[in-house]
Amino acid sequence: MMLATGVAVAAAAHVRAQAAPPAGEAPAKMEVTDEVGRRVWIPATVRRIVSLAPNLTEMIYALGAQDRLVGVTDFCDYPPEARQKTRIGGAVNPNIEQIVALKPHLVLAQAFTLNRRETVEELERLGLAVYAANSRSVEGILDSTRRIAALIGASEQGESLTASLREKLDELKRRLNRRAPKRVLFVVWADPLVTIGRETFLADALRLAGAESVVDVAQDWPRISLEEVVRLQPQFLVFASSHSESIRATVEELSARPGWRGLEAIRKRRVAVVSEAINRPAPRLIEALGELARQLHPEAFGEKSEKRKVKIENRPLQPDDCAFAIFYFPFSIFASERPVR
Questions:
Q1: Spatial distance between the Cα atoms of 293 and 328, rounded to a whole number of angstroms
Q2: Are 217 and 165 spatial neighbours (Cβ–Cβ below 8 Å)?
Q3: Which of 26, 126, 136, 334 has the lowest tally of Cβ within 10 angstroms?
Q4: pTM, whole model, 2 decimals?
């Protein structure tokens, strides 16, 4: 059993176990190459974990290792029980002293759009083991899940979880086989208008849900001019929110604005509202892909396409209507980036 576990760790996390130290020295550690190519020494037994990202917190819960989670960010809100964990501040500027005081065996970071490289380096200088995940595709999310499971001694749970997720992806692929993808605009933020680039995990997720972004640029989170969107004429607008009625009201508000009225998707109310889970590179994303696929391709699931009634509310556009991933993109896009035209 120990041999099998060691093989799983080596395969999933590129681990080279350090020889057991003599009595009186530091406990055994293993050398790991994380997902950005850094070499990290991690205790062979991980009992205390701090998560610096909501998606990584979700991953630990999905692996059933939540009892070892001793610290999370202020934005770690799923599952609801995660709100009861000790808070270490924001993802961008966490409380370093508090993290150190929690004495974690392992700190999990999301490199380097959510968590800053400076944060990781400072924690390392203080002697903490920091593993940086870097999921840029759905396959990458499964790989991160297996790797992290191996690091914390939960390889069996990791293999079981990823096998279940892969079954769901295979079923989605079967249902969408030979169906033309819908051309969509994924609205990260409405004002300024921000969408996704082709190398993000979200672009990959869209493809698996039977969609393709009308914006094809290398920049991860590009601002785009409304004139360009009107020229591209997406078939659907896609929003991520836990408040679908709020998004419907947002669409009504947008439809009254100059420019937005030029979008056929707005005029015909071709809007897909999917769970905010799609915003986080975590196992729950797979369920969100199924949600989106059902809205874009109802016939593939034996459902009829029907127009949904929109609840009209007289109120301005709210930040939560287009909230995205707890800031998985640089804040600078609102001020420094020119829109794509």
A1: 23
A2: no
A3: 26
A4: 0.82
Residue 217 backbone zone (phi > 0: left; psi -120 to 50: alpha; other: beta): beta
244 burial type by CB count under 10 A (0-12 exposed, 13-18 middle, 19+ buried): middle
Q: How long a stretch of residues is the chain?
A: 341
Hey, what are 320's tokens?
């939560």
CB 62 within 8 A of CB 162: no
Please write the tens of the pLDDT for every residue from 58-91. 999 999 999 999 999 999 999 999 999 999 999 9
Model confidence pLDDT, tens digit, residues 203-242 = 999 999 999 999 999 999 999 999 999 999 999 999 998 7
Question: In this structure, what is the dihedral angle of CA atoms 20, 22, 25, 28, given to the nearest 10 degrees?
Answer: 0
Q: Please, what is the Cα angle at 278 between 67 and 99, to 5 degrees?
A: 35
In this structure, the number of other CB atoms found within 10 A of the CB of residue 178 comes to 4
Are 269 and 307 spatial neighbours (Cβ–Cβ below 8 Å)?
yes
Task: Map the chain to HEC letters.
Answer: CHHHHHHHHHHHHCCEECCCCCCCCCCCEEEEECCCCCEEEEECCCCCEEECCHHHHHHHHHCCCHHHEEEECCCCCCCHHHHHCCECECCCCECHHHHHHCCCCEEEEECCCCCCHHHHHHHHHCCCCEEEECCCCHHHHHHHHHHHHHHCCCHHHHHHHHHHHHHHHHHHHHHHCCCCCEEEEECCEECCEECCCCCCHHHHHHHHCCEEECCCCCCCCCEECHHHHHHHCCCEEEEECCCHHHHHHHHHHHHCCCCHHHCHHHHCCCEEEECHHHHCCCCCHHHHHHHHHHHHCHHHHCCCCCCCCCCCCCCCCCHHHHCCCCCCCCHHHHCCCCCEC
Question: For residue 46, what are its two tokens?
Answer: 């991980």
Instruction: Specify the residue for token string 């390889």.
Output: 155
Structural domains in the chain? 2-161 (3.40.50.1980), 179-334 (3.40.50.1980)
pLDDT tens-digit map of 162-186? 999 999 999 999 999 999 999 999 9
